[in-house]
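Example 3.2
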Amino acid sequence: MTASIQPKRDLPTQYVLRLADTCLILAQRLGEWCGHAPIIEEDIAITNMALDLIGQSRGLLTLAGEMNQRAGGERFDEDQLAFLRDERDYLNPTLVELPRGDFAFTVLRNAMVATYLTLVWEKLADSSEPELAAIAGKAVKESRYHLQHASDWVLRLGDGTDESARRLRDALAALWRYSTELFTADAVDEAAAAAGIGPRTADLREAWLAEMTALLSDVGLAPPAPSSFVSTGKQGVHTEAMGYLLTQMQYLQRAYPGGVW
């Protein structure tokens, strides 16, 4: 078994890792639809969106490895950071690690995350970290497409049959409470904002909520009432689902260290 790596708890590095892990873990969930989507066009579309997210995570993980070295640690490459960390060292919000769910669950989660990522990428265009700004310049175009695709499906399901509308309502009830974590401020956010690396995610909540409210209103839905529940994936405290996901994702690299195609 290959030994795990542990990045330093440097605040700016954690900021980049949170974004990288958001893309990486959502890509893993979307990849589970390969061969299982309701129509072949969606099978291809969802897989391509997963590949976009993997591409974004690769650039971010490479940058995080460089930043880890600047902070006095080892310079890890993208594969080490993707496959050789322990569960507590993944910093994605809980929303993206939740089990795949049905198609309505997937498209609504995609709409929620793509809205969030689009806002983040737009702000990161002015990052004091040149490589991060460059990644954002490409990623924002992909994220806008992901948002358009997900929004179209939210409308189709919400205005479709009684069954599709019910599934969309169920997805909203299941997912919404996890959105609070996206905008929870902490020392990582404050450090990144102070250094000009990226925005405080709390500052994006109002714009995100306005966009999601507008989308939901088009199908006669409204955001659920606020909840005091706050998930903790960004702190490295995950749901049971994360362990199973990592077991699948890390298997080849753990079993065959350094293996390449």
